[in-house]
Prior knowledge:
The complex is a heterotetramer. Chain B is of the alpha+beta class.
Amino acid sequence: MKPAPFEYARPGSVTEAIDALSEGGFGAKLLAGGQSLIPAMNFRLAQPELLIDLGNLDELRGIRECEHGGLMIGAMTTHREVERSELVARHTPLLAEVMPWIAHAQIRNRGTLGGSLAHADPAAELPSVMQVLSAVLHARGPDGERTIPVDDFYVGLFTTDLEPDELLTAIEIPPIAAGSRCAFEEVARRHGDFALVGVAVIIEPDEDGAIKGARISLLSVGEGPVLAERAMEGLVGRTLSDEAIRAAAREAAEDLDPPDDIHASPEFRRHLAEVLTARALQRVRV
Amino acid sequence: MTTTGTIGSLIGESAPRNEDHRLLTGDALFVDDVHLDGMLHVAFVRSDYAHGYLRHVDLSEARAHLGVIAVYAADDLGDYWAPGPLLVPPPPIERCEFRSATQVPLAKDKVRHVGEAIVMIVAESRYVAEDAAALVEVHIDPLPPVATTEGALADGAARIHEQFDSNEAAHVVQEKGDYEAAAAGAAHRIRRRFKMDRGASAPMENRGIVANWDEQGGELTVWDTTQAPIPIRNGLARMLGLPERQVRVIAPFIGGGFGPKIMMFYPEEVLLPWAAMQLKRPVKWIEDRQESFFATTQEREQIHDAELAVDAEGRILGVSDSFLCDTGAYNPYGLTIPINSQCTLLGPYAVPNYWSEFRLVFTNKPTVTPVRGAGRQHGVFVMERLLDLAASELGIDRAEIRRRNYLPPDAFPHDHEILYQDFAPLVYDSGNYEPALDKALEMIGWDQFKSELRPAYEAEGRSVGIGIVSYVEGTGVGPYEGARVTIQTDGRVCVTTGVGTQGQGHFTSFAQLVAGPLGVTAADVDVITGDTAKFNWGTGTFASRGAVVAGNACHAAALAVREKVLMTAAAALGADHEELEIADGSVHVRDAPDRAISLGDLASLANPLRGAVKPGTEPGLEATAYFGPEHGTTASGVHAMVLEVDRETATLNILRYVVVHDCGTVINPMIVEGQIHGGVAHGIGNSFYEQLVFDEGAQLMNASFMDYLLPTATDVPHIETAHVTTPSPLNPLGIKGVGEAGAIPVAALFAQALEDALGSDVGEILEMPLSPNLLFKLLHGD
Amino acid sequence: MLIESEFLFSASRERVYEGLQSPEILAKALPGTERLELLEDGRYEGEMVVSVGPVTAARFQVSVELVDLVEPESFTMIVGGKGKLGFVEGRADIRLEDRGDECLMIYRADLGIGGRVASVGQRLLDSVGKAMSQRGLKAVNKMLQ
Amino acid sequence: MDEPQHVNISGMVNGSRFESEVEPRLLLSDFLRHDLQLTGTHVGCEHGVCGACTVLLDGLAVRSCLMFAVQADGRNLTTVEGLAGDELHPIQTAFHEAHGLQCGFCTPGILMSLVPFLRDNPDPDEQQIREALSANLCRCTGYQNIVAAVQLAAKKMRA
């Protein structure tokens, strides 16, 4: 279990990184935290010809408040930094809540927010969290900067809207409407394992408790994070009665076509999706 | 041998371990830590196919690859290529048909399981060796694989070993009394089919071998992660045509064994020493985790069709069991596992009539050899489940039905009239089961759970269940072990023995056994194990036997040295043998502490450099002793558990776990409890987390720690332990084995507690391991 | 591994059927196929590179055979792929039905997968199988326009 | 095949400086064990699950099998060999006293995981300890005496 040979580059700037990426073409791969890539390389499932180590790009690190509110998090910010950020805890408690669910501390010490989001593992927690937070992803390529709303970012299994020569630079999390409530639920085989199913939920109730907006995203049930659109729409205008919660959970589960694996059948995943969606909605009930 | 004075003893003390310091600081030597100048590194090309004809391998590209020193396929081994030995021939059972097919160094004409080694590559680094492995072209014509135990005997199943007319490796019947006659008059006959699937031993350290050939000295040195260095040494000497004394096998610190590290000879064990001699350079192979899922032996797949006959009071009239046992692609271990299952099924119970028949079958899966428990858990699972079902049919309390069937304390020695895996009759040496049951019931709060807790949980809508099971474990089997005890001139004591250690604390428990009689502390005793240059005789560490067999040898050798000490001291102090006492590292005359001499000085006196000694005097304060029991000892125990199920998510939480255990005399309670904790954790793994999942192509679907789930600290509960002590009459110290005990009854307990938690609306649990996925099916139907 | 799914082509059944007999279009159905040639014996042989998420550049020698041809209703693909990371062997039963002037493909692929991809990639096999077949058929559909 | 690329790296390990020329693909775990001969760091799975290879990188616990040696360039590493001074570290002592190890293979990784854990959580409860330990696999102990050892170590370090 030793990785195959590769050429190694450690650019000193994002521009250099993008140049290397465009030159490397199909055989080039970006190394962020490496906590998903390196295992794949040790198994020799991944055999990039050129590995571009983003470890020196401090310009991609850090968490700051945006002038219009909301947060801007550098793509190379580690899970640990996010987990411990007082800013994150204040602005987006959901993001803080989900961090301990991601693998283990030793992995979170290396793993990066951008790496996880760009890797687009269907069982990863962060894509679903970003989806309910309506995050905006900032990417840079040879033709400069562009922003991608999260709903356009995930286009398939391990596939994002990023061009082969683009790299993710930052994640922008828009301000969350006052009074919004959020929750994250997950079932995994063991503490820190890939989720069998997980769900992230945000609801925005008005002053008398009726729901103005709801976002529900499920993970490990499809090709990427899955927005439960029918359930979300169904909740708008209603209060979170037991009945409303049951209906939303049922709709969320019905609309899934979950994958099969040795740990969970599609039926089991659909069942868990309903249970966890209901539990999450119970928790955000005012 | 008469001994005098009161013999001190450290037996029963939780002495902290002598081996810890090296392990805690990173100084302990493991096989992969061996670095030799000019050392080469080995990787293997392994089969992607479970079954097929090996037509052709193209090695040209690999051989041409920069940094590659040598590439070998089966044909390159010449006459050295030979199937491994049949390690355990079948015991002399009357009705026993047996066919042996053992593993080969490198696949020649056929591949018989995924991961079977086909080509060995030797290169300057493991990285390069793996690069070259990817350059080897292997051409295999696939054959239909035998992927299941039942499929092995199905009509038209492909024959894995074509010299045989079927995939049946053995057919064995053992019988006691007349089951059919007894069952005819039974009030209840409970018949079910039980299944247990495969698991991996998964020690944290994978296997590894370093071999070094000293051309000048004509000496071969092999560092091997084996549980049996001496038999490996003997076998290698034979295979390589070397004198045994010119082959040194060192099993240094071993990162866990759990059974498969006693398997011999693994292909790599045969090939590395040969390659070192061919190339005249040291070679190293360290199994990686992915390889370990194919190249290291596995266990546990069995299917039982069993029936229990009881009278109206739930007393056992007899048991009938017919089972299939999977041995994988080869069967070097003979019948050890199925005979363990067959014998352990009887448990602590009086079973007047027993019919037991099994078929061992070849499949296209990795070879099966014992893994912690070695078939015992299957027997316990079948018997305990049958008793649970009988209890519910009869409306008897689950603890009560066990109590009613226990062998009484005066029934020992108890002969079950069948043969055990050690070729000796299955005779229980001693036992006293009810006190253990009572203790466990009290600790788990059996009655209180039923009267108060259960209703309370139900009121909260929680699904919580309780379970209790009994088991016996045949341990401490022969043939023998030996030990040499030496007092050095610095007063320290040195013990050398043949059994290696994989974490069982031998450095400490053996030290305790020796320190007592010699009046020193365990910390004054250096134990040396696992090096054939240090001790020449022995078998290995397996079958929960180390403490029993080697432990008694250590103690006997210490007593012999004690006699020499007293004789030498008597002469030195001009005192009478009977007046002497040994304490605190010296010998003194009773009531005259100033008339004393240290053990170190006595050691010098016993090995004079000049002058005369009495004719016939043996030099030094040293003695060697051997111990071989007449047959195995019988440990026993009761486990109880309280388990909560989250019906919505099909996940579990173990709220309480209680173990009451009887392993005879306990040398070091701390170490014994540690062994039990580890065993229970392993059992929990085999009950809910660990399953090797093969598809219909006999392809393993979870050959990584991502998908093969070892229990973690959040999955294993706090385990409450207590001891009952029924010494064994079969050895002077009264010790029984403990290494595997923790793992044996867990699956049966798990099933019982789970059924209890889920209540009648869910089907019976007759299969292990479970998983949330299976639990979901159980709860919601397929 | 079993993949059962459907795909709606915006082309006639005849067009789809005959299209899938041609190496160029058949190649599209197998994403990552770099070349696919029709041999005399009616089999197709070529090379494909599978690249999904962590698995990059998994190169397979592929062979495809179309049997039980019932024009323009159904046929069976016998597929084989072999590479450093393992192998794929199996069959895909394909049925074509008219849906107005469009064509619905109902397919059921039963694939045996071996080697490293199977033993460490199991979590993703099902998703990858589904995704690749749909991706391939989309590409075919585009070709047929 | 032409000569593979090599990269010069340097940094600190257990308080002393290292300089080396490595192939980019060399895993940090192999670099420590075989190039620097710091064999106390063990390798159990090489895919980041078992935790046996855990070391400290600038004071944080990381899987050394999920890093390339080149990524440690200019960084400060601590392995189990660097844990004890003249005397054993209190965590090591606690493991000895509480029988927190059996075969000892997983132990160095567990010790290195615990150093930052106890630094950040001087008085952890059992659940916190078990969750922290769930990042390291142990086949021998059933974790019970490891949990006890952590509680003992925390007590020693608070005193």
